[in-house]
Amino acid sequence: MKDYKASIHTWLKENRESAIQFLQQLIQEQSTQGNEETVQSIVAEKLKQMGMEVEWWELNGEELKKSPYFYSSREEFQGSPNVVGVWRGSGGGRTIVLNGHVDIVPAGDLTQWNISPFKGEIMDGKMYGRGTTDMKGGNLSLYLAVEAIKASGIELKGDVILHSVVEEESGGAGTLAAVMKGFKADAAIIPEPTNMKIFPKQQGSKWFRIHVKGRSAHGGMRYLGVSAIEKSSVVVEHIKVLENLRNDRIDDPLYANIPIPVPINIGRIEGGDWPSSVADAVIMEGRIGISPEETMEDGQKELEDWLAKLADIDPWFKENPVTLEWYGARWLPGSIDNDHPLMDILSEKYKSVIGTQPVIEASPWGTDGGLLSQVGNTPSIIFGPGTSNMAHFPNEYIEIDKIFEVAEILALTVMEWCCIQESSY
Amino acid sequence: MKDYKASIHTWLKENRESAIQFLQQLIQEQSTQGNEETVQSIVAEKLKQMGMEVEWWELNGEELKKSPYFYSSREEFQGSPNVVGVWRGSGGGRTIVLNGHVDIVPAGDLTQWNISPFKGEIMDGKMYGRGTTDMKGGNLSLYLAVEAIKASGIELKGDVILHSVVEEESGGAGTLAAVMKGFKADAAIIPEPTNMKIFPKQQGSKWFRIHVKGRSAHGGMRYLGVSAIEKSSVVVEHIKVLENLRNDRIDDPLYANIPIPVPINIGRIEGGDWPSSVADAVIMEGRIGISPEETMEDGQKELEDWLAKLADIDPWFKENPVTLEWYGARWLPGSIDNDHPLMDILSEKYKSVIGTQPVIEASPWGTDGGLLSQVGNTPSIIFGPGTSNMAHFPNEYIEIDKIFEVAEILALTVMEWCCIQESSY
After folding, report:
1. In this predicted model, what pLDDT tens digit does every residue of A330-358 receive, in sequence order?
2. H or E element: which one contains B361?
3. Contact between B219 and A263 using a beta-carbon 8 Å cutoff
4. Which one of the listed residues A29, A36, A103, A368 is annotated catalytic?
5. What does CATH list as the number for A204-331?
6. What would be the CATH architecture of the domain defined by A2-202+333-424?
7. Complex ipTM tops 0.90
8. Burial of residue B6, with CB atoms counted within 10 A of its CB: 0-12 exposed, 13-18 middle, 19 or more buried
């Protein structure tokens, strides 16, 4: 293995400048939802040059809607193709999916950017721009890993299937489409921004809306009414008790350093319509974290049942129960066994490249790994060079060195997982 | 006095049908803000027919703005005239203002009305329509009271000044304009809907907006943020403590049966912008009740000082103080001494007409009586035939009998207050 390692390392070093320019090219494509076609054609061309079989297709809303796991803000996907590159192995090896999304969130308020979001400018070893960390930088690690192996003349026994998907930011329809087309494998790695931590588990999540009722009255006689604003505080406190119960249950040491492994967050509130009236209705919107140890359905049911118990703590809710609505996006939780062989290989390669033990944690957010695991039966690990606290924020950047470190770790991991065809080297 | 009483009673009985038709005519005028000209011309014609000197003028925004008590959503008042009728006494008597507003609030959602809001239809002794109870029915009591006295051939020593004003629903600019023009008196009666209770005190009120800060974070790591929604509950509870303190201070027996004499109501809340983010800002809008025993300024200052104390109960507010904004409308508190001679006269006449003792209470809402008392130095009593729980609601109505009962009580009250010129009867 030693020689392979040196060969990979050298290739990455020699191709560093062209790789950075390629990333700049990707950042210059403003591939927000519905605008992914150009960046996908660049990726497809790259995968072809690398000698992969490339499949290119536009998502089919009609087909996708047949899956209960489909979620998107749209049903038409013109201009939003998926690209998958396949490098077939000689047979007898384990297969792997390497999955990355090319869609980006909008740049947002440009006045908050100190640097152009769509140039890929470099300062102090960092490349700046929307999508550098989430996750075109991580995608570059994937391309480099495969290219480095191929450039070293190595043949693998197992297939390498590289997903370049759309729609991750909007519910995962791209990865769902790839899975539905059969692009699955024995395991997967997704280089979402983990700051080079290894995430074998990913929290799922679901959005909800709670309608709290009150009774209107003139503010000068507020004692004749019932304030939905005050009642909404009762609901918030009640939900915090459930959050405690749900998190007390989690004993996986992966979560040891996380204060609240699967939070329930109330992110929006709105209610009442007049300063001098008692508010008769409040709407709260939130997100429940779904543990990798439970199903989406179980988590949802638990919140539903819990809200019904409000009547026990405040008789108001007996006559005026809150109503719970599930809406918007949904991210499935994902999980791979802590002692899965791919976890061992990835950890070992991390140590051999970086020199220290990797940090292994659980992810506080969902990724397409939930769909790969649960729908595609492809257990997934999240491990990438970006940092999640830059994702979706102004002045997003990625540390360039980490892209190459991750590429090297992934190349060695893929080689061991998929198994080298001895005759090839 | 006995003969006068019989004469007034008989006149009201004989003129009942035409009075009801006149009220229907007033209800048919949709005199919402900016649309009061036609109804005022009907009133002005009525006052002229009754032999009053009539003054008619459009409000002057430039003049009004010179007063610190001016509040309106507009500064131009084309099409919104004030009307004042004056019946000069022979001299030596106490003067009285009889004040009523002709502006109405909009009918609102018409689907919630079971009957037309602008016809003045009568069913089971009630006239239905927007403005019946608030307060064209009460205004009719005023016209009838004066007309009945005049029709009985009585002359008074003191002046009777009848205000038919605009803008009560929008901050009181109509009454302010009348006061600024010198239409003041020794006391006033306003037949706002009190359900024939006598209100010697009226709660003032002021609107406020509180900005509560949080710190944003991804909902999946909500422990890294500070929820402005949770902090707003702390603010609501803190304000309730102040409300207790302010109400514990009130020992006037008038408030004995009122659970919260001067409430602080939080009527609106809005905050956060994403279900899966920790809310970093919440805005709450509310109304503070101002006791007749305090000034508007003292009440406002007390809330300001109280909110500064949030830092003592939660260190978050030390670094992130809430901000308090005063905005929108403002109603001055009003008050007349419980043993003011007009209170005695009105109570006695109530008993002589109705046969029972009147209920004397404090009003939970402000009226133009605050401006009359504080700016016009004209202590005011609120006493009228409508019911406040119908005001501003769909299917607003007034009990017709009560209009005539109030008219009779007011006629007798005015005669005694202003003093009959003996030679006239």
Report:
1. 889 998 998 999 999 999 999 999 999 99
2. strand B360-363
3. yes
4. A103
5. 3.30.70.360
6. 3-Layer(aba) Sandwich (3.40)
7. no
8. exposed
